[in-house]
Amino acid sequence: MIKKIAIISLLTAVVTGLATWFFGKPTMAGTAVICHLLLILNLLGIWLIWRVVFEKKSVALGVVVIILKYPLLGYIVIQMSRQSWFDSIGLLIGFLSFVFSIVLVALYKQKTVEAENKAKEIKP
Fold this sequence. Notes:
By secondary structure, the protein is mainly α. It contains four helices and no strands.
């Protein structure tokens, strides 16, 4: 599921970046794509770290990761906002396009599960 989200999200980032470049400003497009990519990396990082936590059964590792990850993300966003190419509307577009890609994957998953359930009901 995470891989599907990452792939669909990458495609959404490209489409969003191109649309923002065409209809908006290049700085807005750059900020949107970078924000979207940061969110993908965050999602993949959460998935990888929690997988390791559950395999090792270490709660302390999970707590340390949570404590370190969010200040790091905050620092990255603050440093981005200080750059000349940063655009706050682009940040919003990048965030919303990431949420949109997750909704798309969830709807796709729901439809495939419903189709599988119907196929099981038809078989004698």
